[in-house]
Specification:
About 70% of the residues lie in helices and about 0% in strands. With about 70 residues, the chain is mostly helical. It is rod-shaped, with a radius of gyration of 22 Å. The mean pLDDT is about 85.
Length: about 70
């Protein structure tokens, strides 16, 4: 896979290292980015499931009253 070099503020990278629990800046930033992407996919999946459930409810035949 292709690699990209990005410059970040040292304070930001140190914070990522602490939160990720790793001592290597490259690994810390990679873990944070991967986690962010995975969360996005999970959010998309939940939204799709919710939309599908709403579609199923909307597609049910309606009973007329009165």
């Amino acid at each position: 896979m292709a690699k990209v070099t990005v410059s970040l503020e040292a304070e930001l990278v140190v914070e990522a290292m602490v939160l990720a629990g790793v001592g290597n800046p490259q690994d810390a930033v990679e873990l944070v980015v991967r986690d962010y992407i995975e969360r996005g996919h999970r959010t998309e999946a939940r939204a799709a499931a919710r939309d599908e459930a709403l579609r199923e409810i909307d597609d049910r035949p309606r009973q007329t009253e009165g």
